[in-house]
Amino acid sequence: MYDSDIRLAKIEVTARVIDNIYNSLKEDKNSLDVIINENLFYERKRLKEERDNKRIIEDKKFWKDVNKRLNVGNEKEFEFILEEIVKRYVSEITGHFSVPVYKFATMVLPRALSLMLNPLSIKKFIEEFPNIPSLENNLHISGEVETFKRLGENATIILTPTHISNLDSPLIGLVIYMLGFNPFLYGAGLNLFENPVFSYFMHNLGAYTVDRKKKNSIYKATLKEYSIFALERNYHSLFFPGGTRARSGAVENKLKKGLLGTGIKAYINNLVNNKEKKDIFIFPLNLSYQLVLEAETLIDDFLKESGQSRYIIDDDESSKLEKMALFTSKLISLDSQIHFRIGKPIDVFGNYVNEEGVSIDNRGRTINRSDYITENGKIVFDDQRDAVYTQKLANTIEKEFHRNNIILANNIVSFATFEMFKMLHPTLDIYKLVRIGNTFRGIPIKKLSEFIDSIMTKLRNLHNDKKIYLPPEVIDLNTLDIINIALKFGSIYHKYDYLYRRGDKIYSEDLSLLFYYHNKLTGYGLEK
Amino acid sequence: MNNNKSVGVIGSGSWGTAIAQLISRNNYKVLLWGRDNSVIDDINKNHVNSKYFKGIKLSKNIKATVSLKEVAENSEVIFMVIPSVAFRIISQKLGNYLNGSHIIISATKGIEDNSFSPMSNIIEEETPVKKIGALSGPNLSKEIMMKHPSATVVASDFECVINKIKTILNHKLFNVYGSNDIIGVELSGAYKNIVAITSGISTGKNYGVNTFSYLITEGMIEMRKLGLAMGSKEETVSSLAGIGDLIATCTSPLSRNFRFGKALGEGKSLEDAKKEINQTIEGIFAVKSINHFAKIHNVKLPLLSTMHNIIYKGKEIDESIEKLLQV
């Protein structure tokens, strides 16, 4: 966000959050001290679980003071406390956009990232900087690219990607740059700001902080109001609607509606204020990697007993430098391509939008969007109604995620191998199945090839019907090539080989990982 | 709601006419759409629908029309009360005149044959409308026309839709309850038609109260089982839209599904029984659709299988019911 807007945001967002709280007090017949107490409770609970650092110590001091003042205060004092809490959150959340930092980053970052992906020494990097191939060569962008560019000029865009890895956000940042846009506003996890270098770039390139450990209502309201404000000011934004990295490896299907719902609020405010750029369009984005940096940690977390999995993981492979280096060098040495597929644009009510920015229904009829929120020509405000529209939007995004799911060779072979393995043990559930380990006796390549043949026939049909996406380097491959590519990726990076060949059979040393890469193809009726 | 606007009702059959009459009791103007010109003339000139309700006067607030456009342009709220077989095509045509401000309520208790879509899905697929609801309950149209006290359930994801329908339909003789379990309400509405055929068979066979009670209890258990498997709420089965509608349809000779079952029970062939009723029997389509749902959700529903065997596989009624008892 530009400095002028930041100053305005601090005033405007604070005022709106406080107004909303007072309005809800009237409706719920609640008192302000009860609301503050409730927020105090959640904040103290969070702080008890946090490790001490400068930020946490300051937080503890602040909330201790709130507690003290609540106990002796009066209504006027409660109002002061509320204002302080909201202002504190707004300051914490607000990001900043620096033109010089952006210019520097766009010049250096693509090649710096390329350096990470190439086995070059720093000396050689400096010597050869102008000639170093940019990472851009490894990124493939397909789908509704032209519509994205066109609508991005006349409307505000919310980009909603699938979330696979912590590498997603810098890579998406690069894609946005390649498409000719300034950085999108992006709510990044507070933990990512702990690294000073990362934090410097994030803060100066438009990222705002999202602390997913804060569960209290005032924080959530402030975060949402900040996003609404930014959308109203026409800042293109990026939300990961899955909330967190997909644990199972499957395409996401239970999306979070919190930030997603800020789109409709901003749209309504734009209509009320008769803004020039009223429209807000959502573009789903599918990502796909041949290797997933944190796959082992993610699938292990998924397979933990119900209720034990962690929403926030901060000690995975992406936090270990040597693991990152190994991963990136393997990716490049294997000539791995990273795919991004932009889905069809959607309006805030869940309707598809055509390339002209016109909403259309399932029969191709044009829709006047404002009708959804008006009655007798007047705009009606209704939070419950808007929540249902946001659910419909989430449903359409899920549909697009499913339709644009990018399938690579290792997904196909992992799927076939795991499914055949499952058939050998029909009585075992998934948890027992992945723990069989040593007793996995392998699948004969001949039988596997036959199964892959039938899967490929179905996949090609699905691709032609636009129900899944096979990239050009996959669609025409023969079965043997598909197996060979998958084997190359199956035995080079992860601790254990999740796919390898011995004699005329395919084996796996890590059935959990095999299951992870397999899961991308679930939900298409490809099982035997 | 803007008082200059009418409330639309699509379908001038018995239930559509009864809904129009219900709405008119609260002094709303009603635009009732139908295809049959003689029915339209009868309503507009004589204020009766003698095809279905001989001798019962309709409110003068009801105006009949053959124009879907007229209904859409003059109504913010529209009730769809047409057989499930025609639901998609009429929705598609009506959809040409609708926009996002409209509210559409399905009062059709059925599932579309072949696509297995509930009516609310069809509205969403064929029109630009999102504010959709479903109406269901123990509402035999003849009793409503005779002003007997009754109640119903309107289900929608949107609270504003529920509130609006309550305003339109609530009356001292007709109470409207709200629910947000739209799939549960639609599924119960379709399932009870199957149970009604079964109870009709039992009556036609003179099986007595024991068999009758067994069949409707089994029907209710299966309705609950399938509902839960498909994500509906448990309490919907015990509501007016579940058990309430089940009791009404399974016990009243006014129910066409019941009468169809009774004719089968009396030994008439499938075709003769259909001819005797001479109206849409939603339960026949529902057997096929619900059987499909049971398969994909892997739920065992013995009563449903029995009806599927009788209606779609031509199995003997006595033998099928004996088999059901052995499950």
Helix-strand layout with pairing:
The complex is a heterodimer of chains A (528) and B (327).
Chain A: H1 3-28, H2 32-49, H3 54-72, H4 75-93, H5 99-117, H6 122-128, E1 139-143, H7 145-154, E2 156-161, H8 168-178, E3 185-189, H9 196-204, E4 207-210, H10 217-232, E5 237-238, H11 262-272, E6 280-288, H12 295-302, H13 321-333, E7 338-342, E8 352-353, E9 359-360, E10 366-367, E11 374-375, E12 378-379, H14 383-403, H15 409-424, H16 430-433, E13 443-444, H17 445-464, H18 472-475, H19 479-490, E14 500-502, E15 505-507, H20 511-518
Parallel strand pairs in A: 1-7, 2-5, 2-6, 3-4, 3-5
Antiparallel strand pairs in A: 6-7, 8-9, 9-10, 11-12, 13-15, 14-15
Chain B: E1 6-10, H1 14-24, E2 30-33, H2 37-46, E3 62-65, H3 68-74, E4 75-80, H4 84-95, E5 103-106, H5 119-126, E6 131-136, H6 141-145, E7 150-156, H7 159-169, E8 174-179, H8 182-204, H9 209-229, H10 234-237, H11 240-251, H12 256-265, H13 270-277, H14 282-296, H15 302-313, H16 317-326
Parallel strand pairs in B: 1-2, 1-4, 2-3, 4-5, 5-6, 7-8
Antiparallel strand pairs in B: 6-7
Overall geometry of chain B = globular
| Beta fraction of chain B | 5-15%
Given helix and strand content, the structural type of chain A is alpha/beta
Order of helices and strands of chain B: EHEHEHEHEHEHEHEHHHHHHHHH
Alpha carbon gap, first and last residue of chain B = 53 Å
User: What is the approximate shape of chain A?
Assistant: globular
Low-confidence stretches of chain A: 117-121
Spans where pLDDT lies below 50 across 5 or more residues of chain B? none
Most extensive interface, chain pair and sizes = A-B, 24 and 19 residues
Which percent bin holds the helix content of chain B?
A: 40-55%
What is the count of helical runs of chain B? 16
**What's the overall average pLDDT of chain B, rounded?**
93
